Amino acid sequence: MRFIIGSNDCVFFSYKHYQIGILISLLSLSVIDVVKGSIHEYKNEGFIPRFNSFFVHGGSEGMYASKVHNNGSTEDKPINGKSFVRFESIIFRRPKEVAAKQNEMQQSTGLVEAILVEVKNRDKIGGSYLNSNAICCTPELANDGSCKVGEVIIRQDPDNPGWPKRIQTPFEGKNEEAKMLLQTVEINRTGMYYLYFMFCDPQLKGTTMSGRTVWRNPNGYLPGKMTPLMPFFGFMSLTYLILGLLWFLRFVQHWKDIIQLHYHITMVIGLGMCEMALWYFEYANFNATGSRPIGITLWAVTFSAFKKTFSRLLLLVVSMGFGVVRPTLGGVTLKVLLLGLIYFVASEALELVENLGNINDFSGKARVFLVLPVALLDSCFILWIFSSLSKTLEKLQTRRNMGKLELYRKFTNALAVSVLVSVAWIGYELYFNASDPLSELWQRAWIIQAFWAVLAYVLLVVICILWAPSHNPTRYSYSEVEDIEEDGISLTGGGVKVSGDLIERKPAVITDHVFEVLEEDKRE
């Protein structure tokens, strides 16, 4: 089965305290292939036993209330502005030996129920209000007329009549198959909804189901959690475009003074623009069709992974002073490229699994297995960046180049602030996920993903400002004179060997020469 939300949404029953445990254990038993698409497909799904019931998790999504309402079904009527869950081609199949034992003249010889429930009504499913943890009605519970034997126990919500929603499909006579009628359930209240297919009769053990359900929000097929991200990606595409235009104008204005670092910054801006645009078009297509074409998604994922990798490499080489205090990276070039390659592969794998893979919940083992390498590599980048910054600052202090020193101090401060903000946000993200196990705060979940895109953009803007092309590139570009000056400052009056001859220089002469160069830098 394939369904849309693959994070930590799969929750069903929560009867006070112990019911949450029931819910989590239900989900842990579900083996579901997740593709983030609003068309949830089921292919010969087997029912899993839990307490006195058997279930298949049919999907979960944040749904906004319909903007327009019709009495009855929405079939053959315009769907714009409507929010609904539609059941299409749902077929239940029971084992032959089970069907053969039934009475051919009997109208109903087995019952399967589709239960659609809003998360805040989870206490209305099951027998918690009857002081029982049973999910299906038993003869004892049926004595007072509160439920019917063989059906799931449901208590109606007085504030929302007809909910939780129950749709029953019976097996007739000795038929092996039971076909669910084409039905559309309109969503009239905003919330997180969960769908389960269940039966209570143990004789139906071994039953499987196939078909699909279509989930739609008022403005399209994007799940509620993802809906705000489409305009966000559109907005970020525009911001990258504006930054790119401003950078291009500056680039053209001072094209004679361009250094290699400027080309690297240009590439990051271009990658960011393409990444945001691809995600926007991918979400727009998803919203229009209800499915995610692998081609567009793969391109978006690849651009995202490459941009992340190149951005980190840019921060690293800038921290090392590349093009500013050193003309090349020297012997560390291979190490830098190797770290970048490993990070790209790890990031690409994680992005592919999150967008095209089969992760069932946010803490799934497969996702943890892929998250850990990326987190470890990010830590390596951070340590290497700040270690390199420390050495670069020390080198600039030795050379007494106040212009470049001030530039790198501003860059270090900006980077330190971004790291502190990132750590604080990670703490908030952990708190958010821990305090919302039932995804009741799904309308805010998009902010978690959006934050990292905004932070990366802000840091890129800071780098563009600090290293903007100008008519005076010597203020941050590498100069061989500085290396000569550094060598001269290190002399203590002993002398320097040149072509086999000992040339004596007075320290005062060297010092005067250094101060003359510094005065020239200040005037520039």
TrEMBL record:
UniProt keyword Flavoprotein present: no
Protein name stated in the entry: GOST seven transmembrane domain-containing protein
PANTHER family: LUNG SEVEN TRANSMEMBRANE RECEPTOR, TRANSMEMBRANE PROTEIN 87B-LIKE ISOFORM X1
A Pfam entry, by short name: GOST_TM
Membrane topology, as annotated: Multi-pass membrane protein
Cell location: Membrane
Transmembrane portions of the chain: 229-249, 261-281, 313-346, 366-386, 407-426, 446-468
Alphabetical UniProt keywords: Membrane, Signal, Transmembrane, Transmembrane helix
Entry keyword annotation includes Transmembrane helix: yes
Domain GOST seven transmembrane: 228-473
Example of a GO cellular component annotation carried by this entry: membrane
Main location, first listed in the record: membrane
Species: Lactuca sativa (Garden lettuce)
